[in-house]
Design brief:
mainly alpha, 2 strands
């Protein structure tokens, strides 16, 4: 029985889905690569121009998403080949994320000490944690790409009848990866909202929800055998994050609309980032997928 079925018995029906937990994780990773590409395009296009360097993560995100979907189709015939292809894509995602963090921090250091102190520089400079999500998706994807046998043993099967023993089971690793996703999303939210001095009470919702989610996810990653109560609290935290994302999306949408709900594209490009709150919903969904049955089929 999966963790999710332990706290919500009807979820046992999810075991009949045509995709396993790892395959759903890989599908989410592909969607996230494309999602990041669109988000970066909107963020980098605020000035109306995109440099060649700024096009790199945009093109990579779309290309990576397509290649990962292709790898998913190949997996039905040749899982090892699909895993190798996916791993190469995810390694590229980690590299793109690392380079993005470097370039964003370089801009931050240029601002710090010249116009404003370091805290203000972090708030007003390009979000240095933004590119980190490429790296996190890469780590998540590599974890999902290789079969764990037996389930929850931490033993990953590699090509050539080889295997590697990881210090944690894949489920516990997923919990820790999800906690990093939530932490990055929470810090990014705080830095973005700090531009307005955190005066609006609504901006504290993602902050408090994120702290709660990080704490619970880390604890689940540390606990070897979580109880039903532990899983229930974790499930509630992930559902809360999804709600935070939906509420944030609606609030950001409202700030970009002019009276009578008229849509002005320019306000959506330069106003509150419309896709940013959905990151919480995305992470909450990833967290719920961790609770599915870890066993592979066939």
């Amino acid at each position: 029985m999966s963790y999710l079925a332990a706290v919500f018995p009807p979820a046992e029906r999810l075991n009949r889905l045509p995709l396993t937990r790892d395959q759903l994780m890989l599908l989410m990773a592909a969607v996230n690569e494309i999602f990041l590409s669109v988000d970066i395009y909107l963020a980098h296009n605020i000035n109306g121009t995109l440099t060649r360097a700024e096009w790199i993560p945009i093109i990579f995100g779309v290309t990576a998403g397509v290649l990962l979907l292709l790898a998913g189709l190949i997996a039905f015939r040749n899982r090892s080949l699909a895993s190798v292809l996916a791993t190469l894509v995810f390694l590229g995602s980690i590299i793109i994320g690392g380079l993005g963090i470097y370039f964003h921090l370089s801009r931050t250091l240029l601002l710090e000490g010249v116009d404003r102190p370091v805290v203000d520089a972090l708030v007003w400079a390009p979000p240095f944690l933004g590119p980190l999500f490429f790296a996190l998706v890469g780590v998540l994807g590599i974890s999902a790409a290789w079969i764990e046998a037996p389930a929850d043993s931490g033993r990953l099967l590699l090509p050539g009848n080889r295997a590697v023993q990881m210090p944690y089971s894949k489920t516990r690793a997923y919990f820790l990866i999800v906690s990093l996703f939530i932490l990055a999303a929470t810090i990014s939210s705080v830095l973005d909202h700090a531009r307005f001095n955190l005066e609006n009470a609504w901006v504290w919702l993602p902050t408090l929800g994120g702290i709660f989610g990080v704490t619970v996810a880390v604890m689940l990653g540390v606990i070897a055998r979580p109880s039903r109560e532990d899983i229930s609290v974790y499930t509630a935290a992930m559902v809360l994050l999804i709600l935070v994302g939906v509420v944030g999306f609606v609030l950001h949408l409202n700030t970009s609309l002019i009276p009578r709900g008229t849509i002005v594209v320019e306000r959506f490009v330069r106003g509150s980032p419309l896709l940013a709150p959905l990151l919480f919903a995305n992470v909450g969904l990833l967290g719920l997928l961790v609770l599915l049955d870890p066993r592979e089929r066939g």
